[in-house]
Specification:
By secondary structure, chain A is mainly beta. Chain A has strands at 3-7, 11-12, 18-25, 35-41, 47-54, 59-61, 69-74, 79-84, 93-100, 110-111, 115-119. In chain A, the strands form two sheets. In chain A, strands 2, 4, 5, 6, 9, 10 and 11 form a seven-stranded mixed sheet that branches. Chain A has a four-stranded antiparallel sheet with strand order 1-3-8-7, with no helix packed on it. The model of chain A has no long low-confidence stretch (mean pLDDT 97). Chain B is mostly beta strands. The mean pLDDT of chain B is 97. Classes of the chains: A mainly beta, B mainly beta.
Chain lengths: 121, 107
């Protein structure tokens, strides 16, 4: 059974760095083809793709966030960490991590419950 | 970036109706199109991948079609459980962009 769960601060001050951890079970991020993606959703807004980290540590980032966004994976701990620097009010959102087995079109077929992060002083 | 445009942005329907949602890509994405369903306060759920393949456990009243730039999600005989927001996503070229969503509510 595949599960994912996001964890981290619920409140972050402007200009600080947000660090979120996606802890997962039921798969290994060293298995060929597997990947974990990050998606966020501002209150009342649409889904926004942030990026993805693959089994071989290949990463793709949203161009609009690339200068502030970093993913790191710890295969032994079954975790992926998202780091977003210099946050602002526009980064207030629910952040999700999601899994894909890499099958064909890489659909995200398992999602965490999401964690709401508010950026405010 | 590939832009994904969904229409309509919202619609009102009744139980038993047939609902069709469209998703258009700004350039060809072959069949690299996924549909998700999301309910308030919940994570998205995968419905259809590779444009027309039904994810395991998803009711057969859901179907997807299209290729290239134009895609559809059809819900035959809408059920109470189907009132939700639906999103398309392309996975052809990173960034793997989502559409703006289509909210299906009760008429």
């Amino acid at each position: 059974q595949i599960t994912l769960k996001e964890s981290g601060p619920t409140l972050v001050r402007p200009k600080e760095t947000l660090a979120l951890t996606c802890s997962f079970s039921g798969f290994s991020l060293s298995t060929i083809g597997v990947a974990v993606a990050w998606v966020r959703q501002s209150p009342g807004g649409a889904l926004e793709w942030l990026g993805i980290v693959y089994w071989d540590n290949d990463k793709r980032y949203s161009p609009s966030l690339q200068s502030r966004l970093t993913f790191s994976k710890d295969t032994s701990k079954s975790q992926v960490v998202l780091s977003l620097t210099n946050v602002g009010p526009m980064d207030t959102a629910t952040y999700y991590c999601a899994y894909t087995s890499g099958l064909f079109t890489e659909p995200l077929d398992h999602w965490g419950q999401g964690t709401l992060v508010t950026v405010s002083s | 970036d590939i832009q994904m445009t969904q229409s309509p942005s919202s619609l009102s329907a009744s139980v038993g109706d047939r609902v069709i949602i469209t998703c258009r890509a700004s350039q060809s994405i072959s069949g690299y199109l996924t549909w998700f369903q999301q309910k308030p306060g919940r994570a998205p759920k995968l419905l259809i991948y590779a444009a027309s393949n039904l994810h395991s456990g998803v009711p057969s009243r859901f179907s997807g079609g299209g290729s290239g730039t134009d895609f559809t999600l059809t819900i035959n005989s809408l059920q109470l459980d189907d009132f939700a927001t639906y999103y398309c996503q392309q996975s052809y070229t990173a960034p793997y962009t989502f559409g703006g969503g289509t909210k299906v509510d009760v008429k």
